[in-house]
Amino acid sequence: MSDRETGQRRTIQEIAQAVRVEPLAKFLRRVERRSKLTRRERLRIVDQAILLLEMNYVHLPLKRAMHAIDPIQRLKLLKFRLEPHGQERIDEAHRPAQRPPLDVYTGMQFHQRMLEIFASLRDLHTQYFLPEPYKSHIAFLPLLIEQCFEKRGKRIIEKFLVTRVVSDYLPWYRGTEWNDFEPGVEILYWNGIPIRRVIEVNGETQAGSNPEARFARGVDNLTIRPLSTSLPPDEKWVELTFRNAKGKMATVKLDWMVYASDETPSSIKPSKKRRAAIDIKKSKINEVKKKFFSSRSIPVGKRFADNFYVDSKTFDRQVYGYLRIFDFDIDSRDFVKEIKRVITADDFPTQGLIIDVRGNGGGKIRAGERILQFFTPQRIKPELFEFINSPLNLEICENDPKFYEWADSIREAVVTGATYSMGFPISPEEICNDVGQVYYGPVLLITDALCYSTTDMFAAGFQDNEVGIILGTSDNTGAGGANVWPYEDLRAAVSRKSKALFKPLPRKADINIAMRRSIRVGRCEGRPLEELGILPDERHFMTPNDLLNQNEDLLAHAARLLRRKPLYALSVEPIDANSRGLRISASSRVQPRDKRKRISHVDVFVSGRPLKTLAARNGTVRSTTVFLGELATRADWLVQAFDYNKKLVAASRRQR
Predict the structure, then answer these.
(1) In angstroms, rounded to a whole number, what is the distance separating the alpha carbons of residues 551 and 356?
(2) Residue 620 DSSP code
(3) b (16+ CB within 10 A) / e for 450-473
(4) What is the pTM of this model?
(5) CA-based nearest residue to 134, from 266, 260, 285
(6) Pair 296, 309: CB distance under 8 Å
(7) 3-class DSSP state for residue 351?
(8) What is the rounded CA–CA span in Å between residue 364 and residue 458?
(9) Cβ atoms of 408 and 416 closer than 8 Å
(10) 287-489+518-563 adopts what CATH topology?
(11) Which of these, 149, 269, 279, lies nearest to 221 by C-alpha position?
(12) Short-list 503, 450, 507, 504, CA closest to 111
């Protein structure tokens, strides 16, 4: 079966279905007059940005240290120059000087300054969003370019291939140079500039937290640019020089186009819960139009088709489950139930599971953290979150019972001088362990540098709780470690006395802010997720075969890693409707060198008390009935399997 298109690939498909499409040059002429902000509107945006960064922005000390920046001073200078006579006072003190126009930084100049200041933070959670009409439009070229690698002896050669083309938006008159332009050709130059350099320059404007993330976003946003967070391209067309499979070179010319997109990820809409962690630019790209999905041998509910799908993959006569998660932007309760249903289906592979979250921009934090329990017998410890200590954050925490536990430590900062509050989980530990393990095969997670926000937290929890192996197609994830709040959420969170500080932003302009930072647990306890990200256990270099044939080499690599891991099975079934007894069986399959990793015994507990131990033979416990006693119908039970190293390797439980 063909792999479902995701991220930019899906966007390219959706562009082909778009109706409201026009050339970039025409769009800019059409919106030129109505897109200008008055001086008062620009000053209001700057004032609110200063307030948010000074009083609420949780990463400000980290960003100042890591990037040697002062965004607040830059905003104050911008405000000074926008104020009436502000620039003129500078000129009076430095004559002779040519007096500039009274109103400076008009039109796109203002947006450029704001985007530059926010990009300097290297934080995709904290962004300035252009007002209408830019906010609801996306500029694009009708093709997709992706990075891959080829081995030539001991060398690894980097290439950039065209992987998708929307023929409806190619020039109507095409010369012979177009005959060889198709998916699979290698792009060499962009307007005469080496393609890698173009990607590097583009990546520097994308605010990725680390070099891997910036480069990945430079590729990802090369031909599709949401105008809510990016300036319109400077050029009206692009000349691409390419080389086909036979080595022949040619150059084609493509016009930038623009289309309208009305969708907004549900995670970033104003909400009282404020549990979102999402890369809005990536979500804007991934959700621009109606989603496409193909039927699967193991179907998911139709309402979840835009969030994930499951499939089976066969390598060396062994069948593995494949769970592709596009985003976590969905109600966590329904998401958790559906994930559990599909991975426990009778026909779902049990030999091992590949979870692929590449390009996943995040969503609801609980949706990501709660499903970790399905894949490990260990108790999940969720990531912790901290506010930066400030009077305004104290007011917010005292104003809402959901944040009371943070309020005490923020209040104590007056005495302790601490920069951050104490850390508490957004997803309570009880909720992250309310079901327990349901899948017993080995599990592998595939990440890339476009994983961000909730997906970063999911990967961190996967690694910190030792759920399984992480295979990366990049050397790091996007490193977005925060809970993001839209501007309207902040306005709603403050008390009446501070309401006047937060004024409505003009023309649907918006600012999002990282409010609570994520702190890792387990073996990386205390390490901030922001900027540092998740390092994979092993790296895969994407090949041309991956790009053109549904990740064939990547998934084969994942299967080889899973094959080396122990394979466990644990079955626990009530013998009747009253659960008076349990029918228990367990098995293990390990490599010859790992005999001590076989199941040694199975322990049965009722209401927290040990009831019985079942000894294994050659790593197997044959089907055995264990009676629970008189209180069976009301009692909790827990069944745990241990290996010869006394390590817990599988578990099943019922909680009343």
Answers:
(1) 11
(2) B
(3) bbbbbbbbbbbbbbbbebbbbbbb
(4) 0.90
(5) 260
(6) yes
(7) coil
(8) 11
(9) no
(10) 2-enoyl-CoA Hydratase; Chain A, domain 1 (3.90.226)
(11) 279
(12) 507
| Residue 318 in tokens | 């062994």
Residue type, 636: D
The pLDDT averaged over each successive group of 10 residues in the chain (656 residues) is 54 60 91 85 96 96 95 96 68 51 77 95 94 91 93 91 88 86 96 96 87 93 91 94 94 93 57 56 48 43 86 93 93 93 94 96 94 96 96 93 94 90 94 95 97 95 96 96 93 86 92 96 93 96 94 96 96 83 94 94 92 95 88 82 96 84
Q: Does residue 410 sit in helix, strand or coil?
A: helix
CA gap 564, 586 in Å, rounded: 20
Helix (H) and strand (E) counts in the chain: 19, 30
Give the SS3 label for residue 603. strand
Q: What does the chain come to in residues?
A: 656
Query: Which pLDDT score is estimated for 294?
Result: 35
Closest by alpha carbon to 532, among 210, 218, 214?
Answer: 210
The fold adopted by the segment(s) 8-26+137-260 is: Pdz3 Domain (2.30.42)
Helix, strand or coil for residue 584? strand
567-654 fold: Immunoglobulin-like (2.60.40)
